[in-house]
Amino acid sequence: MSTNGTPRTPQIAIIGAGMSGLCMAAKLKLAGIESFTIYEKADSLGGTWRDNNYPGLTCDVPSRFYQFRFAPNPDWSQWFSAGDEIWRYFDKVADDLDIRRHVELGREVTAAHFQNGRWELDFADGRSASADFLVSACGILRIPRYPEIDGLDSFTGAVFHSARWDHDVPLDGKRIAVVGTGSTGAQIVSGLAGVAGEVKLFQRSAQWILPMFNPRVSSLTRWLHRRFPALDRVAYDSLRAGAHRVAPALTAPGPKRSAIQAICRLHLRTVRDPALRAALTPDYQPMCKRLVASSAFYKAIQRDDVALVTDGIERIEPAGIVTTDGTLHEVDVIALATGFDAHAFMRPMQLTGNDGLTLTEAWKDGPRAYLTVALPGFPNFFTLMGPHSPVGNYSLTEIAETQADHVLAWIERWRAGQLDTVAPTEDATTRFNADMRAAMPGTVWSTGCSSWYLGADGVPELWPWTPDRHRAMLSQPRLEDYEIHSTERVATPAA
Ligand code: NAP
């Protein structure tokens, strides 16, 4: 509170105008806080939904659960919506809540350092800014991972990563190689089957696939959702409750895990050819890697114009891909569905906290945070979708809301004059991370497979407990776990 009793006005810098950055902005707006700026490196909003626009892109989380609770959309066209529809949704949220005027596009933050109680930001264009709070909303799967394959540069056709799809390249009737069998590769193959002349999927590891029926939403249902907005809340809550019933399957062995694994195994039996089915059978438990959800993939891979290649990639030549058996697979286009650097978080941005502590030093043993959102030694800094956030197959919009609510609560305490700076203690962060590591052996991600879920030490960088526990811990933070400084303490911080 300022000396005249009115709330102080914090300057807040948000990095990234993707789903989580927009969520943070919306929460500030809804709390009546206008003094924030979103710095976005690209030339439009939308983050992952802007960058990913490959054929077949569909979010495998139900749309009525993959939306902000405060911004229901009655008009979803399908249960699981296509990428461009989701991108338009986030764009509309930005317009409806008048967020766009807070966004500065083409502003890449290269460095941020904490100095004299404030964050000083440097941009790639040489400009600078400062803020009381810094919120990183850079996303998790942002930096494409390109495979190291000999001769990749020599290919004379078109080659691009799935998150950098070149829409100028014609696909009709073309021979297309898809490298990688994660959620992205499976969706691309399903999207291209019957469009391209021939699709070859280069599989290094087989994937378990959960069937995902995707009915259209009737115009009557959409009308009902427009007419009775409470229906949307009911749909959201029941989908959320369903997700919460399923979530323990990931974190502890038991009948739920067995049931989902049985569904995946039954689904695989829909592949009729025993040799193809054997080639598509993973050598690890379902859900160990991030589960792929699709009812289209097994149908697509059984088509005559789609082929599965399981021999390893030896090299790439100007005309195509040479596999370890010596075969040259001549293709016109290579789509690299080879995933992302899931451990970069806000890097390569240089972050420097108290006493010159750099993020590189703080994370020399791997990314870690307190309660997924805050870092010891980095006051008034928060990250959304940070290390160990509950990602997986759960709704990230819900996680972003939980984290943004937590950040907002600290900003509200600052506004009320209860603190000037806040950061978690080193002890609390060490304890929290030790507890998480202790819980990992029971998780399905630790059952023996390689995946982007695992850190350099082989330990999953996911949330090993229920989503409810995440919300509970973030909504009731233990104040003794924080270093809180205030020059003129007016009131005691309230949890
Ligand atoms: P990914 O799950 O990391 O899969 C990458 C694939 O590329 C794997 O099959 C990997 O094989 C393969 N690969 C990597 N390097 C290779 C190389 N040098 N040679 C041959 N194969 C190589 O990446 P993603 O499919 O892009 O998905 C990433 C995440 O994005 C998903 O797990 C999900 O969280 C999210 N996503 C979500 C949706 C959705 O609908 N919600 C859709 C797409 C993506 P190995 O398995 O052998 O390493």
From TrEMBL:
Pfam families given in the database record: FMO-like
The membrane-spanning stretches of this chain are none
* InterPro entries noted in UniProt: FAD-bind_Monooxygenase_sf, FAD/NAD-bd_sf, Flavin_mOase-like
**Gene3D superfamilies linked to this entry:** FAD/NAD(P)-binding domain
Q: Which UniProt keywords apply?
A: FAD, Flavoprotein, Oxidoreductase
Family, according to the entry, reads as follows: Belongs to the FAD-binding monooxygenase family.
Name of the molecule in the record: NAD(P)/FAD-dependent oxidoreductase
